[in-house]
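2 proteins. here.
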Amino acid sequence: MVKIHEKTLKDLEFYSVLEQISEHTITALGREAVLEIKPIEVEAQLLRELGYVNEYLSSFDNDNRIPNHGFEPIHKELKLLKIENTFLEVQSLQKLVSTSLTVNGILKFLQKFHEYYPKLLQYSEHIEITTGIIEQVDQVVDRFGDIKHDASPELSHIRQEIGKLKGKINSSFSSALSRYHGLDYLDDIRESVVENRRVLAVKAMYRRKVKGAIMGGSKTGSIVYIEPETTLQYTRELNNLEYEEKEEVIKILRALTDYIRLFLPLLNDYQTFLTKIDVIASKAKYAKSINAILPKITNERTLCYRDAYHPLLYLTNKEEGKKTFPQTIALSNDNRIMVISGPNAGGKSITLKTVGLLQVMLQSAMLIPVHERSSVCLFDRILSDIGDNQSIENHLSTYSYRLKQMNYFLKKVNSKTLFLIDEFGTGSDPELGGSLAETFLEVFYEREAFGIITTHYSNLKLLANELPHMKNANMLFNERSLEPMYKLVTGQAGSSFTFEVAQKNGIPYSLINRSKKKIERGKIRFDATIAKLQKERSKLERTERKLKDHEKKKLSEAEKLEETNAKIQKKLESFQELYDSNQRLIYLGQKVNDLSEKYFENKRKRELMSELFRLVQIENAKRKKTSAKQKRIEKAKEKQVQQEAEQKVAIIRKKKKEQKRKEVPVEKPKPILKIGDRVRMHDGKAIGSIDDIEKGKAIVNYGMFTTSVNLDLLELVDAKR
């Protein structure tokens, strides 16, 4: 049975969290329900509730968002349905239809996506999907909120008669209007409407000459409003029919209400269900705003919050653009109690409150802002003593109040308790208060309770160091700037930096020195040793950060090199494609040149056309069929690659020209080229072999094609042996 005292909830600012969650609700009933949330006592129910919130949170990250659950409260309608012979107005009926439609929509959605939301579906299975209310109301009320003519045969007949009478009234009124207007008895406005009836605007001097009922007059008295005598009889009949219509409408609504009364339990379930969904949705939205998750809940006695944030502090800093420092806190059977020490304003109390608040939130079915690898156990009781506890109402001092609290702790603490005490032992003589606090802590330790305390007392730090299942922890402090680093480290007590902080705040060194002489030398040495160890710890932290930054930098450089290598490889492939394309064009050009020379010698057109056609067919056989769009893309790509290649070639040629200008030209004897020599053209890359030489020209074979080139344009690469 979970017991979390009201004072603990206030100490940990649990109600501030509820206020923030309530801002995410979309209904009045949902807001009320959120503000009444308390820790859940039954573990099975708690795990179910956490599952609902976790499933709803997951809906924000997929394409199957849970439908809107907004609704108007139907308390009034439910009360009326409980009373016999009452009937619901049209507006109330429309609210019930809207509620029914909303619930049906959510239920059908959960059934359709049962794989995504199995727990929410299981919660909703007891609620029936029905269209009875919707269909029955739809038969009576139209979309404008009026009772339909065909809601009953009697109503249809009455409204037909009303329509006929209104026609007669308009006809008789028009007749009277024409008659009296012709006699010049009417004012310029001719007619008006009084009490929803058409009346003649008669000049006051002629009021006795117009037969009918006087309905009023103008403010000046110059006009008298008269309903013509010919329409009076029809109007009386109309009043009777309108009364009958009203009675028939009430009869219809009464019958419809009697039908809906059968669904009273279901409508109660509808409202409860939608209110619950609103609470679940608001918890999920709040969880998203603080990056909260559902950690692993274990039956073992371990509590490990990794990278835990205080939700209130996180949201406040987020609004102000400040950084919030996460903390990692672990408690287990081997390390049940943590004693946090260190200077004031270093973050000890916030760390303590973070653990308490997150534990209370989790046990109230809320997700918490921790790392996904965190794991927690559940406690039957959470006790706290945080903040200034001076009781003005009971005329108790801080220390007296704290003693009453400790007495309460001694009665309640057991192995399934989590206790949180801020500034343990303060409020009395340091020596006496410290020794009493030490005794209390020993009792808590013996009862195997889990807990976190903050303190400045050296004896409590020593006790944590001596007992095997208790550990010291401290908030890191920058020894140079004497500013807090807001990082919790375990395994070592923290110095209060009392004299260092005093010196930083301008206290004369001579006074600090006198103060040091007034206390025991051993205590100074102990505090100085702790401070020295903390400084060493800070140095190690800085070294570790530098090494991590260096590692990140190396990884980043390696990624950049890989990216550059990939770009170079891509360009090489593009240049190779361009080269192959150019070689092919050279080959085609040479073939066309050979055909031209042959035609120049023999003048045979048919042979020329045949050879050209055969060449075109061979080339087309190599081509792949591509769409016009693909051709445009390929041409654009080729053009881009060619432009890049031309730019590179232009730069290389420019460099070569500059180099040639600088170099003193040394004429080399031209080699005598022979058949079989491997050669290439000046400034060229392609290498071929000479097949034949005649008349100062060489036939060079490049493998894919042969070409005739002047010997002066060739240079020897490798002579035939």
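next one coming up
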Amino acid sequence: MTNRSARLHAFLALLLCSSFVGTGVLSGCQADTGEQSSGGTKVTVSGAPSPTVSLSEEDSAAAYSADDCTKITFQDSSAAVDGEGAAWKDGVLTITKAGSYLLSGTLGEGKISVDAGKEDTVRLIFSGVSITSSGACALQTVKCEKTILQLDEDTANQITVTGSAEEELSAAVFATDDLTITGQGSLTLKTSAQNGIQSKDTLRITGGTLSVESADHGLVGKENIYIAGGDLSITSGGDGLHCSYDKDDEDKGQIYIENGTLTIQAQQDGIQSKKDVTVAGGTLQITSGGGAEKAAGSASGEDESTAKGLKAGAALTVSAGTVTIDAKDDALHADGAVTIGEPTLTIRSGDDGIHSDSDVLIQGGSVMIEQSKEGIEGHTVTISGGEVDVTSSDDGINCSGKTDSTTSDTPGGFDGSMPEGMTSPDASAAEGSASEGGRSGFGRRDMGSGKTDIGGRGGFGGFGGMEVDETAVLTISGGTVCVNAQGDALDSNGRLLLSGGTVILNGTTRGGNGILDHGSDMVVSGGVLIGAGSSDMLELPDSGSTQKTAVFVFSSEQKAGTLVTVSDSKGQVLAAMAPEKTFRCLIFSSSQLKEGETCHLSTGGTATGSSLHGYYTSAAVDGGTEAGTVTISSDPYTKVTVS
């Protein structure tokens, strides 16, 4: 567990104000499609799809009797056959009927070909086998119902292919039909010019220790890949796992992982399917494109090849397991919905940590995004539970709306600096309240037309970026959400709805970005919200909010680590935070804030107790200097300038 993960777990026990609202662990046996209500807006998200591929008893390693097997012994460039169903000729061992075949020895040059009946199952038991082939592949199934490659217990096996790929033979191990790898032994496979292991139907892995080095994709299942066990290590010039099926057949096009250990180093995507990807268990460690650090200085979308961690052309679900991703491109990417159940997920990304072209749903678990450009991006983002921790160089959590995902929310990739000849507007210069249209000071929107009076989205009249899209909804109803962002911490081109949980925001230090940014409206009805950052682009709760918010704008910039304490009129500490970056604004919302009550703000002093990203709960504060007071008004928020 990382230090940040340990801190997060320890701190959760002290979150007395959190409201954890979960929708349950996703089932791997039943599809779950639900509608999450978001303040009047319904967001439909998909649960974990059930596996479309089944396992039978024969797919798992089974005890066998050598007396019941045809025995094949390789020696140099020949093979001795003892039994029926196999023959050696011209450097090729051909197997022509169903049954079990026990293989051992070293084949210096040659291959195995399975050419049996269409309904036959052939079991190849590798018991100390080494095969080298200068051709296109070392093991080919031309025809059969299923080939089972069983790695015999306590044996080491090896396949090396040095030849070039052919049009119909694009892998070192190539199966025309179903292929299963199982057992308790090991297999080391190296190929210099093509895929490692490929099935034109379904590839199943239920056991064994498998090490694959391939010039192109590591493991390929054209129709499906199902991993139910084993210890896999894959180094590939293409994708680590690849499924290319993209037709309408609902029983095909899945990569489904429910158990096992996978370590993947891929030059392209770690795991990629044209349709669904599901991780329902196991331990995955994925590095794609050399990792997040390789993204520095490279332009996104330079070519069609990508270097994402998990990539799905339809739905992407991580319902359980331990997943660690270091990706040059997006860590999690789906054209459909991204659903997070109860995994432990640690991410470093050169682009988006989690990206969906439709909906992102986080129900629980631990989601640690340690490096990203944008942390979480989707048309809608719904967080109902779990521990979410985001570090980003741009927006932390972004609901982008119905626009191209590469479009910036500021014009021309605007980096937050002001245009030449303009100065950054200071929120303290305009003491706007919610009655002025639901926006503070500059940049107030006319909510009826979606137009801006002064600033508009992007901060400057006529200089805004994306249009308002009210179907873009960012909803937080439970869990713990921490964001450290250099863009907007929370950003929705439509609605921003907070009804539960604890939200801790260390916002930007640069102009043109804010702690909160919303295109339509922001409704706060529950939970705890505390955020610090720039006073630029200050956007605050609107009239639909039922929970009060206090906003403190400092007359000068405050140093990182300066303790800020909010207390009630009796001196009880309501919140204490030592922001991780320089700041000029503090936003605090809690059910403890009541209309007519006076709150005191102090700076300095020391706090005792556990903290998470600078935020303390149940803290004892000693010392400090009073900076100002605020009396909570009837408006959704009350804003005051303090020293």
